[in-house]
Amino acid sequence: MKRLGKNLGGYFGETLDIRAVLRDIKAAAQTHGWTFELFYKIGDLELFALHRPSRITGCGSRIYLSAGIHGDEPAGPLAALRLLTENRWPDSAEVWLLPCLNPTGFVLNSRENDGRKDLNRDYRHAETSEIAAHIRWLERQPEFTVTFCLHEDWESRGFYLYELNPDQRPSLAGKMIEAVTPVCPIDLSPVIETREAKGGIINPSLDPATRPLWPEAFWLLQNKTRQSYTLEAPSDFPLPTRVNALVAAVNAALEEWR
Predict the structure, then answer these.
(1) E strand or H helix at 37
(2) Is 139 helix (H, G, I), strand (E, B) or coil?
(3) Domain residue spans of the chain
(4) What is d(CA 180, CA 93) in angstroms, rounded to the nearest whole number?
(5) Residue 191: strand, helix, or coil
(6) Which of helix, strand or coil describes residue 196?
(7) Coil, strand, or helix at residue 140?
(8) Span 11-70, pLDDT tens digits
């Protein structure tokens, strides 16, 4: 599978009608019994969380997934829709899903929000209204067993992921890479985004002093979880391939709870 060669200096691939996608997401969630919580609104654009309780009494695993924090990464919200529609969630886990954290970015087909701020660099200082609202919502939630943030990288040669796992819990990274391999190329570069990588897996620094601008995953690690994964689909491949890659990775990880 070859790269499309469209992304020269930025993302120039497919775009989303985010309003339509979010309508479909809410409909799928309602069909399968998820609860809906609105936590911020920009005009008619909503930031909301979906919640699915564990189907087995007494099971304590809590899984968090988010998508759509960059408006030029359409595979994330579409993967969220696919996961909701397929409804293969483990009965033994409680799940929270936030399908789009930057709806104004999707309207503009921009990484940033409508104030030209990269929301995924604002979790240390929370200067934007969207991230301040998201953090307030997160602070009301319990701790999560594991978190997943769905992303894309317009420069990447293939799929890769970041793993934050300071307590050395059993890793899910290898299982996700293995599951993605049949559907999407893996970026096997020894250095990705200036960080050392091995087999498509990056283990970045865990020292807050080295991270003046925190992404969502780093805030989650400091406040809500001890195991976090950021999944990066390669934007210079067809959109269905990128969606398939994210869905395959998440489903492989969820097998631990199924």
Answers:
(1) strand 35-42
(2) helix
(3) 18-254
(4) 23
(5) strand
(6) strand
(7) coil
(8) 999 999 999 999 999 999 999 999 999 999 999 999 999 999 998 876 789 999 999 999
Question: Would you give per-residue pLDDT tens digits along the chain (258 residues)?
Answer: 888 889 989 999 999 999 999 999 999 999 999 999 999 999 999 999 999 999 887 678 999 999 999 999 999 999 999 999 999 999 999 999 999 999 999 999 999 999 999 999 999 999 999 999 999 999 999 999 999 999 999 999 999 999 999 999 999 999 999 999 999 999 999 999 999 999 999 999 998 888 899 999 999 999 999 999 999 999 999 999 999 999 999 999 999 877
Residues with Cβ < 8 Å from 150, sequence gap 6 or more?
Answer: 65, 66, 67, 68, 75, 76, 79, 80, 231, 233, 246, 250
List Cα–Cα distances, 104 to 34, 45, 75, 231, 244, in angstroms: 24, 7, 16, 22, 25
Map residue 107 onto helix, strand or coil: helix
CATH, range 18-254 = 3.40.630.10
Q: Which residues contact 14 (CB under 8 A, 6 or more apart)?
A: 74, 239
Tokens of 62: 């809590």
d(CA 97, CA 201): 24
